[in-house]
């Protein structure tokens, strides 16, 4: 079990993905802790809208029996035995589930498109490849709750008539790979996977595919290329992977978190999922909080909670320093001002604020660091990680990083900002994959929110935080 | 694992190595020999055989040949002269071609040929070889006998005229007393060659060219001959040699001052005669492509080409002889000064041996000096070689000076060549500058202007001779 | 080591089977024809029109002579079939089309930017004028306003090219009459001008320098220094070069009174430019339909009355002097500012028609462009002055001698590129 | 018109005589080259922008469009070890006869033929056997070959491409795309974590400093046997600017000490 620090969340928040706070507390201990644990019974109507806690997944992740007691594979048996594909997709549509990959695409539409595509063979691909090096949400999910992901993927395979499931994840996540493989073996022994699943004559083969590679493999078409063993470069969409994906066959690609939620929806009905989240989004999402916070770690957060509450989970901003900015969305996320604490953490609100959910990471930046340096380094990272297929991404991002570097070194050209916005607009306009659209966010959000710091660098060529050496006008000694 | 094949470079090196060691074997088989080997295989034995034959026949036949030669002196003289003239024309043509290329280039602000040989000197030789090497095929529909003979007629016509030209007091082909008449007769023949060429080539352009040349030369022949009669009147004879002698003394005795109008008419008519600009109607490039020589290629074209340049040389030679005193010096030249005192010991021809020996000694001394002066950087043979060249140059200059001073015919040749090449320069100069005259203007000018002018000149000269009771009249 | 699979692509080379030579095998016929001297003349060309029939019937003492298309003196690939009786020309049938490349059709299949460089090779000795006409027409279509500095640069470079084109004309006229030196002097002069334009535009002959709404590049130091150095000795050099021909009796005798074209014939055939002004009609597009900044420049339009080859030659020499004056004025009051108007990347002019005409070295160079709203011109008609000038040749030549054809044709200064388009 | 008939001709002759002695206009071309204008567009050469970087992106459009294939895009790799054709596999597939010379059947040395050290291909055969020659499993094949030989030898890639039928450019492309596959035998690997919090803590500057010490750049083929890589993911719980040597986090590497540390490491490691 990686010692990623799972933050305890207030009880009223639902625990769909991870076992309740307290790390390895087994179900028994939690009961001892007196939490109201209600085991969802099949078909039982939801008892009122208030926060129902669903029995979280078993404490020992690969203990099948404990998981079965906690309701694992119940959804699968229902789906196989008495639900038709249409009903499953309808249940999913009802729940309004949206993809956790960062783009927030409604899941049911993908399923319907994939089911309708004519092909002799279909695939389900679990995208557990956490591109952002600083975020461990998918890895922890796989370690703590592998069966939910497996069951979700199995249900999806049943729904679209696929018989092959491929789970792509980082080769560095060694524990997650081990847990997953044991879980798959146990599920096959128990008959939930393998050739004749639950006597229904269908076969569901699961293949765990550890991939080493670059940041780009997070994108769905690139992941498919990686699984095929080819250069990880995105493909033109349409045709979407749902019609022409892995090895040219229709493929359903979802983030691991999306699959983990599906069994709950199938067993508990769409309603149970609907109200497990504040306004705007539904269900929960794993968020990684880091930067200058008292207790950095990751937590399962219902959509719609404000960023402030999430940061408070991690013990709030560290006492000695004040928050200067919030980096939301990973390396290609947006840098938001402190007053963005009040924005709700869900798709549309973040987009409006100029950031996006992305890899689900929130970094709290305190006054010691220089935002211009941070933004230009992030753009540099995105430029390096670009796969190089399209000109605007390969050259545009490099020029963008150079603009950032010039500002940091204090030799800006006259119209840096206008050139910056103009170039970013071109890059975004001619994007092939999401990487281009998001990589321009750091510098653009800087121009939008921190214009004064930018002008300080360009006009007075001074660096308030003292990070940019060549500009270090302020007295030395500030911690860089 | 199969052994990896060697790289291509190594394979190529192997093939070359094989080729080298098998070279010895190749010499036996004719197929393998390179061209130089083949040449050597043929020429070396032949040379040896001929040398032996020559030596034997010389030893055996020497006596009778000498007295035969002694017996009929004039015949030998004629054979030698004809040989000399024939061998002389081609180099002069080469020289003129090279001169024209260079001079016109310089006038066009170009540099002219400078890649073949020093300053491009070998250019005309290369032209000659090229023309020699090219295939002179006769296109279909051509009247083959006439086609092949035309260049011969033209070339011979212009070469024969060299017979009568006095290069120096003793040096001339044959001193006919009707030299001038012979000259114009031969000149007239060349037009026949042009016509034959034009007609036989079965090509409209050459037909036009041929007819034009006929009209042009015929209409310019008359003023040319009449303008010369004045000179004949003054000189009293038609033999060119005597005309030249008649003008000996200083430049003032030259006929140019006595016959100014005749010079002008002769000059213009002569340009037309030689088809030189501005009267080069026969092969006007922009109108009738190359005139009579359109269909010619290879050595046939070469003859036409050389004939034209020999004509230029002849005409300038004639102008110098008739009007500018041929080989006479422009001012009364104190020489030839008798150098016999040098030959006090009377060894006569032995001088040549002495000079040769002196040359060798001088070469050694100079070679040693250079070798020392260069501080032994040079190898001995090259130092000696340079020494020999310098010594040789020095000796030849000495000899030439001696000849000029001593022998009148060397002096004569010198002056004759200087004057002739001045006129050649003028012809080339005109070619570089003037555009071409139109055919009818050409004709009109000849009949309306030149003919009356030459008649006038004839009348005036005749009157002058009678009235002033000049020596020739008596 | 990867072994290369056996070659399956190239077929083994076999010799074609030896056929039996049939009777009508050409080689047999040729041998028979030549040997048996049955050399009957080639049947005459099937004549289509009445004029052609009348031309191709031959009287006695007459013959046909093909002047071109590989003739050394025709400007490019012009073929004149002359009917001669002796040296006298009885009739002429010019044959065109050897240089036809379908430029107009190509222009109609390319977008507006691409048309500009398609147009250069038409009148190759003066490519800028051709571009100017096309650009003028397109600017009218798209009502683009050209910045003044660009207009002045256009006038400057075009007049320079006019001088070089006329120098070429002088050289070729002298060459056709047999003089060897003037052609060399004119090429030296032209080379100097072309080097200058290469410094400005980047190309020596096909410039591709004008753009719709301006020019490609601004004046640079290299161009200005070479221009200054050339201007200082331009006048003296032109006088020296022309001195070789102006008073040369042979040249004058060959050019005066040859190929006289009177006013009516010139106007009837639509002859324009120097040839028209030599016949007394002072028509110059720069004055008649003023364009660009010519109204602000003062230069006079030299005209002569004789209308013969000599007049046409002298007119062009006067035009060279005028052009030097124009260049002077351009240099003195050259405004500064942009050299290119702001234009959208994709040009789609509103449907319409436009006529742009320019006074080229050989006459009025016009372009009639019709746009149908797409990004390719619907119709791109080029009016070339040399075509009109050549129209006159069959009426000027009869009666003259063969040698005069060269004098007359080269005095009209046709450019086959423009004629055959 | 002059009154004396010969005067015009005389004047013309005088001019040519003057020009006879005037300086000439010819340039001896091969020895003396005319200096073309700066803006002359006729030069046939690769263009460089104002920073001196080559403007050619080897996008290969010109080579593909050239009807007579006279434009060949290729060159030696930065370490000058092998000659390779750049560009999509179809145009320059190693199997197609690129040069007209060879298509004419004459034996012409094949530029693509590369003189490289022959290796024992048995290991590669076994790996391919295990993956039943499936080009789809290219990544695991390459990883196992790298494990077997310590690096990816070119002979192995050529053999894989030949045996599995995948075009060489595809195999070469995959090998170069993934940073953990390397053509160079590498003794040790220094990895710098560039996650957001590490970047915040200055890991970008640390990477540059280490790069200077090791005379190499991030994700470039190593020069001295020590490769500088980017850490794929932050090791949970490790300190913020995270630098690992062969996987083990190094505590003492900070912005100031990075350069010295990397130089010491480079001296110690023998490639």
- Please state the CA-atom Rg of chain B, rounded to the nearest Å: 29 Å
Helix coverage percent of chain C = 40-55%
Query: Unreliable runs of chain C, pLDDT <50, ≥5 residues?
Result: 1-13
What would CATH call the architecture of chain C? Orthogonal Bundle
Q: List the total number of helices of chain C.
A: 17
Global structural class of chain C: alpha+beta
Q: What's the rounded overall pLDDT mean of chain C?
A: 86
> Outline of chain C, from the CA principal axes?
globular
The most extensive interface, with participating residues per chain, is: A-D, 48 and 37 residues
Shape of chain B: globular
Contiguous low-pLDDT stretches of chain B (5 residues minimum) are: 1-5
Give the helix level of chain B as a range of percent: over 70%
Quick structural overview:
The complex is a heterotetramer of chains A (480), B (474), C (421) and D (271). Chain A has 480 residues and is α/β, with parallel strands linked by helices.
Question: Your description of this structure?
Answer:
- The complex is a heterotetramer of chains A (480), B (474), C (421) and D (271).
- By secondary structure, chain A is an alpha/beta fold.
- Helix content of chain A is 40%, strand content 11%.
- In chain A, helix 14 (391-409) runs antiparallel to helix 15 (416-429).
- Chain B has 474 residues and is an all-alpha fold.
- Chain B has helices at 8-21, 23-28, 35-71, 73-107, 123-133, 144-160, 179-200, 204-235, 240-246, 255-258, 260-273, 285-288, 298-323, 350-373, 380-406, 408-433, 439-468.
- Mean pLDDT of chain B is 83; it is low at 1-5.
- By secondary structure, chain C is of the alpha+beta class.
- Helices cover 47% and strands 12% of the residues of chain C.
- Chain D is α+β, with helices and mostly antiparallel strands and 271 residues long.
- Chain D is built from ten helices and six strands, in the order ααββαααααβααβββα.
- Chain D has helices spanning 7-21, 61-65, 100-103, 122-130, 138-149, 154-164, 168-177, 196-200, 203-213, 258-268; strands at residues 74-76, 83-85, 188-193, 226-231, 243-245, 248-250.
- Chain D has a four-stranded mixed beta sheet with strand order 4-3-5-6, with helices on one face. Chain D has a two-stranded antiparallel sheet with strand order 1-2.
- The longest helix of chain D is centred in the first third of the chain and has 15 residues, at 7-21.
- Residues 87-106 of chain D have low confidence and may be disordered.
- Chain A binds chain D through residues 2-5, 130, 132-136, 170-173, 211-214, 226, 228-233, 247, 290-291, 296, 327, 330-331, 333, 361, 363, 365, 369, 374, 377-378, 380-381, 384, 387, 391, 395, 467, 480, and chain D through 57, 135-143, 170, 173-174, 177-180, 193-200, 202, 204, 218-219, 230-234, 236-237, 255.
